[in-house]
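## retry 2 of 3
previous attempt timed out at serialization; input unchanged, resubmitting
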Amino acid sequence: MTSPFHYKKSYVLDRDYFTECFEESVTSDKSVKAYQKAIAFFLIGTALLLTGVNAYASLFIVGLGAVEALSVKFKKTWWLWRQMMSKAAGNEVQLVLDEQGIHSQSEYVNSHILWKDIIEHSSTNRGYLLKQLAGTNYLSKRVLDDNSIDFIKKKLK
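## retry succeeded, writing output
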């Protein structure tokens, strides 16, 4: 009789970890379609400026267009900055894999993902994207050993 699988590892939520999470889970769209909202704000603000309606409000809308364009252009930088400014950044996380699921605990987060609650999953070069009804989570392979990776593959089949 084999004993139940149990894997425990701790890691720190640092810039490298957040960068990996972003690169493996977010798709960046740099096409014109990604800038549609920015273009719309800019055009509406410009039209309002040309009609002479409240210049301050019109310039504010043009400014919103500029900020929106910058948020698309610098999406990764903005996301990383927000993560590094969060109170979770720099904290240690305890990761536990067992027969029930994946448990992550830190000073600010206590998360438990049950294997049965994962409705969709995909493997990336550096980790796993685990989709539940509540959202999608990323699990990095850099905090896993070979046995735990094999265990996850078995559980996700």
